[in-house]
Design a protein that fits this description.
The protein is of the alpha/beta class. The protein is 49% helix and 14% strand. The N and C termini lie far apart (53 Å).
């Protein structure tokens, strides 16, 4: 099958358990592998020292520290350049392993597709802890818990390219180098949307399987809302490149076709302060969250 390179970008996160779990599992499976973790100029010095100490004790782990922060797309491309495996498994650092068959499941799905003559990208999915987060983190928590209802492999396979996520996926080295992540993406979001679209354009299959990692990185509602706004700005700046892949952009186009854009935008401007207070509160309304994103995106084209 070839050598497996497990690639993890790290930024201000304690990834000691993730590194240890993946390394242990790969050794127990008898895999030919390497674990590559690169710190993207983290600002938390103690975390950096702790991660580096654990990584240095893992026989097949390569750990690097950058002095200049890269964007998400550039960082993943840089990780791939450090890999010497034939198969690349990308995993975000704020992930937790919940299955002792995690690596085996990925490789079995990849090999099955390859033997059928249709070498494909494999996406394992993600899930979230149902333990309530600290106060002030409710927006991301409730949003993800609701989103988890539509993250089964069966659901993702309905529209496989639109459901691609870079949180955890496996791809052959050659396929990745023919595509890479688009380094025009400099703000948060949409690098995985464009990657999924490029897979579709090239006729590369995606196999979705139920092999999730737990997403541990639930940030504060305030920080999450800023990230969402950043991703919407990114989508707007990319223009037609992502318009047909962005749900917000698609809804915005429909509203324009119905000739009610002005009314929706006016209501958003009048109510955005109240909506934002709700979203940053203890019981955020997810319907208002969807409307806030729509109005924010529409407002970008009217400035």
């Amino acid at each position: 099958m070839g050598k497996l390179s497990i690639l993890i970008p790290v930024f201000n996160w304690d990834c000691r358990q993730l590194l240890t779990d993946l390394h242990t599992q790969a050794v127990e499976e008898g895999l030919d592998f390497q674990l590559v973790a690169i710190d993207d100029a983290s600002t938390k010095t103690q975390l950096k020292r702790q991660n580096a100490a654990v990584a240095s004790g893992l026989e097949f782990c390569k750990y690097l520290e950058l002095t200049t922060n890269l964007d998400r797309a550039s960082m993943r491309n840089f990780l791939a350049k450090q890999a010497d495996g034939d198969i690349l498994l990308f995993i975000d650092c704020d992930a937790g392993v919940i299955s002792n068959r995690f690596l085996a499941n990925y490789l079995a799905a990849y090999e099955e597709a390859r033997q059928s003559g249709n070498e494909s990208v494999v996406v394992g999915g993600l899930t979230h802890s149902y333990l309530r987060p600290k106060e002030g983190m409710e927006l991301r928590y409730y949003y993800e818990i609701e989103a988890d209802k539509k993250r089964s492999a069966q659901f993702r396979s309905i529209d496989p390219y639109a459901e691609f996520t870079a949180f955890s996926f496996l791809i052959s080295r050659n396929q990745f180098y023919n595509i890479c992540f688009d380094e025009k993406i400099t703000e948060y979001g949409y690098e995985d949307v464009l990657f999924g679209a490029e897979l579709q354009n090239r006729g590369i299959g995606i196999v979705h399987i139920d092999n999730p990692l737990v997403h541990m990185g639930i940030e504060s509602s305030k920080d999450y809302l800023k990230k969402v706004e950043s991703s919407l700005r990114q989508a707007y700046m990319l223009g037609n490149i992502v318009r047909k892949h962005s749900k917000v952009a698609i809804y915005c186009q429909k509203i324009s076709e119905w000739h009610i854009r002005w009314a929706v935008l006016l209501f958003w401007r009048i109510s955005k302060g109240v909506i934002k207070r709700n979203l940053l509160g203890r019981k955020p309304n997810l319907n208002w969250f969807s409307f806030y994103k729509l109005g924010y995106f529409m407002s970008l084209s009217s400035k």
